[in-house]
Amino acid sequence: MPYVVRMAWRNLSRNRARTLLSVGAVAAGVAVVILLKGFVDGSVDTVLGNTIRLTSGHVRIIRPEYRQKERLLSLAYPVEGFHGEGFEAVVEATRGLPGVTEAFGRIRFGALFSKGERTRGIMVIGTDLAAEDRVAHLSRFVDEGRLPKPGEKEVLLGKDLMDSLGLQVGGRVTFLFHDAFGALRAATFTVSGRMRSGLRLLDEGSAYLPLDRAQALLSMPGAVTEVVVFGATQGSAQSIASEVRAVLREKGATEAYLAIPWQQHNAMVRYLTTVQVVFSIVYGLVIMLACFVVFNTFWMIVNERRRELGMLGALGFTPSDMLRLVLAEAGLIGLVGSAVGAAVGSGVNEWLAHAGLDVSSYVRAAGKDLLYFPVLYPVQSWETTAVAFGLGWAITVLATLSPAWTATRTRPTEALRSV
């Protein structure tokens, strides 16, 4: 076997330009796969992570009617306990379940904020801000002031919203809203802090209030529009949802509430999870396309070396020796090309993972619901690098099976006569 490898190496050095072209094609395919997967994983992880932390939780408990009218931010279908004893009963029951790390209630409602003659329609979130900060890390976005305190008439607003209304931290803002009975009401709160997150949903279209203040404003004592439940990882959502459903059955509340894991939150989340599966196929196709160059190269090599192969056959080379010789040449090209591609791809991806990519123009064009930061940080994974390296080498060898098989069928007499 070593002599076959030495012959393969010598053969590759005969036409260095053609060998370098094949090595470059394999290297480019492997590098593109590493960069593409880093970009896709970084994009999907960012959007899903923000969606889970800020909206869906790992599991959300809501009423079936609320799910149908959620876009309207309806207050008509609250979570108010298993049998009207208050939403805290649901929170306490879920906090004790295996795998649950946090659970709390939120109220979402629409309001019209005004300052002088300027008005803006936004979504207001009444929540347990201490619990919210533990899972969503809201305080990292606060560049001036602080989070609102429970019991205080304070509100946290985004920078772009404050700029559009001409507000400063410490200033007062009045907003109009409908309470749970449909009555039009107004309230004036002090701005306790300013968010600068880069997420349009937070910077332009959201306001956070203490939950107790929101319940008092909306005439919803002991009620919230949803209970969000968090586990240690995204993968724990299905098992937590099953545990919550078991509690609902035990309490006789299966028809009153739904337990929805984040994978079923909305159409965009379902689309993103599908995108990861589709791109797994695309990665293989990219390397196969690059290896098409190798396939053509080896067809040319076999046809050009028919006389040489015939002479080797006359000297005692068996068909299996010829098969090993051609596959050894392909293996060396795949090995060097995959190594170069893995080194270049992972190196560039590692640098981008720290430096980031400016995608602010894309974020501005997208809607507020796409929870995407202006700077994208691709994910660098050594597992991805190893898989891309192995895939590049394996597909290169597989692409030469047909030319290699043709080489084994070369008869010495026919090959020498054809020259």
From TrEMBL:
Entries under InterPro entries matching the protein: ABC3_permease_C, Lipoprotein-release_system, MacB_PCD
Which Pfam families does the protein's record reference? FtsX, MacB_PCD
**Localization terms from the record:** Cell membrane
List residues traversing the bilayer.
20-40, 277-302, 323-344, 386-407
Is Transmembrane among the key words of this record?
Answer: yes
What topology does the record note for this protein and the membrane? Multi-pass membrane protein
**Family membership noted in the UniProt record:** Belongs to the ABC-4 integral membrane protein family. LolC/E subfamily.
Recorded protein name is FtsX-like permease family protein
Taxonomic lineage is: Bacteria, Bacillati, Bacillota, Limnochordia, Limnochordales
